[in-house]
Design goal:
4-stranded mixed β-sheet, single chain, 145 residues, 45% helix, 2 domains, 3-stranded antiparallel β-sheet, alpha+beta, elongated
């Protein structure tokens, strides 16, 4: 889901730039400078995801890449989405229908908004991650219902 959002935003930037260039009839340095965020956004959106490399869990988000050794992970969590697109609200329409991967590392729970996915995808994919990492899980959303 995060990849699709990134690509849509990049496409929006690109279309705006094309219309701007077409309206002015000139291609200026500013048009190339304006295109740079669209290109970077499109490229980064294709890198988002969760991978298991050896004994490490690799989470690539918009601004950062997290590498977590599986021995540090106490639990795999499913949390409600709370991030930029719903202004970090809890209990709204988006947070009820979009889940994110979370991890219990030591005494801290950490949710990763860049792993946003539909609830049905979370119910299917999160257990696969648990199986590979061989850790317990806590499905918060299921526990609340």
């Amino acid at each position: 889901m995060a990849r699709a959002v990134g690509l849509l935003l990049a496409l929006g930037f690109g279309v705006a730039i094309v219309f701007g260039v077409a309206a002015t009839g000139t291609v200026a340095v500013g048009a190339f400078a304006a295109a740079l965020p669209a290109v970077l956004l499109a490229v980064r959106s294709m890198m988002l995801g969760v991978w298991i490399q050896g004994t490490d869990l690799l989470i690539v988000s918009w601004l950062r890449t997290y590498r977590i050794v599986d021995e540090e992970i106490a639990e795999v969590l499913i949390g409600d989405y709370s991030g930029y697109f719903n202004r970090w609200a809890d209990g709204d329409l988006m947070s009820r229908h979009v889940s994110v991967l979370g991890l219990a590392i030591g005494r801290n729970d950490r949710l990763f908004p860049a792993t946003a996915m539909r609830n049905s995808t979370a119910r299917r994919r999160i257990p696969e991650i648990e199986d590979v990492l061989r850790v317990a899980s806590q499905h918060r959303r299921d526990a609340q219902r």
